[in-house]
Amino acid sequence: MTKTDxxxxxxxxxYMCDKHLKYFKDKLLNWKQEIISNSKLTLENLQEKNSFPDxxxxxxxxxxxxxxxxxxxxQRKLISKIDKALKSIEDGEYGFxxxxxxxxxxxxLEARPTATLSVEAQERHERNEKIYRxx
Length: 135
What we know:
Oligomer: single chain
Number of strands: 0
Helix content: 55-70%
């Protein structure tokens, strides 16, 4: 999506029409590119060899590196979700709940473009997860 493209999907348009699909595809591709760019910077930071004569500085550096590695792992998982969403666009399934087949909704997709469940299905899933976690 170019910076001059000010299109925002509207509820008045047919749900998941070509404009909607293009908008979300561009949004997902831009998000993926941003994550990849940021992860390259993180990787460069991790590859820097630092020598710390002080044990406290060394421990602090190791903690920072651990945090960065966890962030990279989350980014890797997010890229996987983005790729899955892009595939669902190609397959004509994007924007519809995996459980119910109902529309996920533009507002939810705008907030979370990788969403695969409607709000209701997600809430049901989280309730069931809580129930089984405490058994």
